């Protein structure tokens, strides 16, 4: 199934009087849930959906715990995930402490398997 995109006009904020340029905007359509993953795995193996769901829940819970512990979690050749963030600047190193951290985010890096799959992706214009 191809990746769907729409066409969106965007103006250059540095040149607001110029006409807009048009860009492809990739649209997320549909969703895959943990249950969907478990059903698929069950259909291609001898393990039941319930057993696969238990393993997936346990695995993703461990991933969340490890990211919260500051670890970089490597999930095979599929992806890595870790915590990142930003802080306010101070004049000296001594002024930096935990309250200097202003935001925390998740850093997701696709691995070889996902990158290779995207290289083969097809695209379809919406509408």
From TrEMBL:
Keyword DNA-binding belongs to the record: yes
**Which keywords does UniProt give here?**
DNA-binding
An example molecular function term from Gene Ontology annotations: DNA binding
> Which residue intervals define the domain HU in the entry?
1-125
| SUPFAM superfamilies listed in its UniProt record | IHF-like DNA-binding proteins
- List, alphabetically, the InterPro entries matched: HU-HIG (IPR041607), IHF-like_DNA-bd_dom_sf (IPR010992)
* Domain of life, source organism: Bacteria
Record has Nucleus as a keyword: no
Q: What is this protein's record name? A: HU domain-containing protein
